[in-house]
């Protein structure tokens, strides 16, 4: 554990005002990065029902055909079903992310962080524009794919980036990603509830990718030798060592000079492919529970939420769906912010409780025994609490328990857990949607 804590362990308390200012800047910077990185992903899921149900098109023939198909689908089932499950949007939103997270940890270290952020910015802008101006479901799904590329590359890169800073930036990152859920889902719900079209709502949100770029390039206080536009293992190693030296008191620096030189020599050796596979195997105790939590979570969100419709409510079906997503994201925000106050090591507990939620709501969809959407509002809020807590605590303890030279790779590699669970849940949601809509 001593070795694992040496790089981004908690800093020694100091009266240095500049050090405190930099730590606050970095924590706020990572909060904004988390907010902006996940914002588009959340908005696309909140708009899933609208993307599938209504496209602003000049072609009245296509419009008429689509409306007839939806009426036939609704009339032939006891549920108000779309012809295609919202899991189609989820697949477009997660598959590119999953591919990036499965492969990128083995080569992304060769790409400078500055270039990665530029790619995230460009793909996020393209995604909002494509979905805003789309006239077909297929075009919208391509826009969602760009949002997925931006979010996947961003999450992987910013989690890896956190190893260059104090571990407290993970608190800011986790809270920011939770705020993205609330901000994205709530803004979209409020805009559309106020009468704005999905197109106008998405166009308004184009400022978010700009905040991401500004936060990274102008707000973060990087170590002096941080490799912004060039990448090599040696550069990263020396930067990591310098980061350690900046956080240690002077007496300890003098006493441990020989130890640090020895550690620097160890870090210079890059991780081999075999090393990375070994690290991935060791991360299984984190990746598997996190994946199961997210499988149950998104099975609910994209496989069941659309079917939890209460026709006697004053809220329409699309409005009910949007507020399910919004309240779920509020739960995620609260739990992802909880890392500032307490940590929970038992990720398996979150996994068990989330699976219970999935079974409960599956039975509720089949037997339709829930009285009104307000009961579902409470359940999905609780579901968000479990999912957010599992996410932030997983990455906190990976950061705390991983050896120095393995930490940057481990943080990136472990991010595959939630995406894998989401992708599998999307695949499972298609037959579930088909089964219930055929009743």
Automatic annotation (TrEMBL):
InterPro entries: Battenin_disease_Cln3, Battenin_disease_Cln3_subgr, MFS_trans_sf. Its main location: membrane. One of its GO terms (cellular component) is lysosomal membrane. Coiled coil: none annotated. GO terms for biological process: lysosome organization; regulation of intracellular pH. Keywords: Lysosome, Membrane, Transmembrane, Transmembrane helix, Transport. Pfam families: CLN3 (PF02487). The keyword Mitochondrion does not apply. It comes from the Eukaryota. The chain crosses the membrane at residues 28-48, 87-108, 115-135, 141-165, 177-196, 202-222, 282-301, 321-342, 347-369, 375-397, 409-430. It is found in: Endomembrane system; Lysosome membrane. It is a multi-pass membrane protein. Belongs to the battenin family. This is Battenin. It comes from Triplophysa tibetana.
